[in-house]
Amino acid sequence: xxxxxxxxxxxxxxxxxxxxxxxxxxxxxxxxxxxxxxxxxxxxxxxxxxxxxxxxxxxxxxxxxxxxxxxxxxxxxxxxxxxxxxxxxxxxxxxxxxxxxxxxxxxxxxxxx
Length: 113
Prior knowledge:
This protein has one helix at 3-17; strands spanning 33-39, 46-49, 62-67, 70-80, 85-92, 103-106. It is mainly β. It has one domain: Elongation Factor Tu (Ef-tu), domain 3 (Beta Barrel). The longest helix is centred in the first third of the chain and has 15 residues, at 3-17. The radius of gyration is 13 Å and the shape is globular.
């Protein structure tokens, strides 16, 4: 693990442990949640998602990030707490970047009939 990645993960963990006390409010609805923080790193980018175990997110889940109905990225939840989660950005659409306020929804599979 690179020092930059390690420090980024530490910052996200501290935010989770502190209960998002820096003025962030964790919330989610049936439609999903939002990105509430973003930490770019040289090898891996992390986001703090404003939903957690209480909203159905679990470690290992894949989520989609969208903005104005457009797909922006795909996330992998690496840690979930009661009201917030940290996730790795695994795929970013060309020309897009994850931003605070983007919508986050659990990726589900549809059956074709």
